[in-house]
Amino acid sequence: MPIETRIDSAAGLRTHIVSGEMDFDALSSTLEGVYSDPDFLPDLNVLWDLRDAILTVFSSGDVSRVVDVVKGNWTGARAALVVGRDADFGMARMYELQHDTSSSGEVRVFRDFEEATAWVMEK
After folding, report:
1. What is the pTM of this model?
2. Contact, 108 vs 119, CB < 8 A?
3. Which of 39, 55, 88, 98 could form a disulfide with 83 if both were Cys (CB 3.0 to 4.6 A apart)?
């Protein structure tokens, strides 16, 4: 499961493009790498392109663990998650709901990439 990360500081956007099956360990490892990078900017908006990812290996406990990892490193920007499958939409919505109750920043789940990009860049 590769995760490609692109950072566009001028646009204020970090994009993660995921393909294949994504589990907690792989996601956690990627996030730790991003967060420990000396050039990491915690206030960038984030776009997760999950259209080619498979999220169904996540449990609700894994989703809670992801929320915990993110909330300590991300400060109030917007995050858009774009999914392509119904089952993945459900897992992403679980993340959105848990994040909204525990952290600053806004998270929304989308099925349309252009709509997600427009929303995440509004601020």
Report:
1. 0.88
2. yes
3. 88
